[in-house]
Amino acid sequence: MSKIINIQSSRPVHTDKYFVDTNVWFWFTYCASKEINTSSKPRRYQIEKYPAFIEKALDAGAKLFHCPLVFSELANVIERTEYDIFTSDKKNAGVTRKGFRKLEDERKKVIQEIKIAWSSVNSVSTCLNINLNQQTVTPAITHLESAPLDAYDAFYLQVMSSEGITQLISDDRDFTVAGVDELYTASR
């Protein structure tokens, strides 16, 4: 069972090494500059407390990490959010997500948002290499069997384990049963 640490009372130090979950990057990069009024909009605490903790960790000299899979997940979340914003206008309600991708102006906006977010992630954290092959899939399946995680989270655990990172910043409490030593969260 993980040690759960409230990010509001935590004091990062320069020796801390955190893997940062995708949703935290989403709130830190994309949501920080947008007003999102969709059914899946972030909660106020998510867009306030997580970015503040990331800044606190950086100010303390702590190390932040991500992996290339974060790009895939982050790009998908940004595209889905832009699509939800677009279709919240009733005149666009019938546009499918694939159809949305074909709208040149909207596509340019989505790609620009993804580029900005990914650049921000890379400017404050280190990208860890991940070698996806059968040797990494088998342990990921074990993680999926032992905890209610999605496949991305299972691979993130693999990356953390292979790099000796025991601290995770996430709003996802499912990680508490997945073998993470320390879960830094604002989740209630």
Task: Describe it.
This protein has 188 residues and is α/β, with parallel strands linked by helices. It has a single domain, classed as Rossmann fold, CATH 3.40.50.1010. 52% of the residues lie in helices and 11% in strands. It contains 7 helices and 6 strands. It has a 6-stranded parallel sheet with strand order 1-6-5-2-3-4. The radius of gyration is 17 Å and the shape is globular.
Number of helices: 7
* Succession of helices and strands: EEHHEHHHEHHEE
Which stretches of 5+ consecutive residues score pLDDT under 50?
A: none
* Order of strands, widest sheet: 1-6-5-2-3-4
Beta-strand fraction estimate: 5-15%
What is the straight-line distance between the termini?
17 Å
Describe the structure concisely for a colleague:
It comes from Pseudomonas fluorescens. By secondary structure, the protein is α/β, with parallel strands linked by helices.
List keywords for this structure.
188 residues, alpha/beta, Rossmann fold, 6-stranded parallel beta sheet, 7 helices, 11% strand, globular
SSE arrangement:
Elements: E1 3-6, E2 17-20, H1 22-29, H2 44-60, E3 63-66, H3 68-87, H4 97-101, H5 104-124, E4 126-127, H6 134-146, H7 151-163, E5 167-169, E6 182-185
Parallel strand pairs: 1-6, 2-3, 2-5, 3-4, 5-6
Helix pairs in contact: 1-2, 1-3, 3-5, 6-7
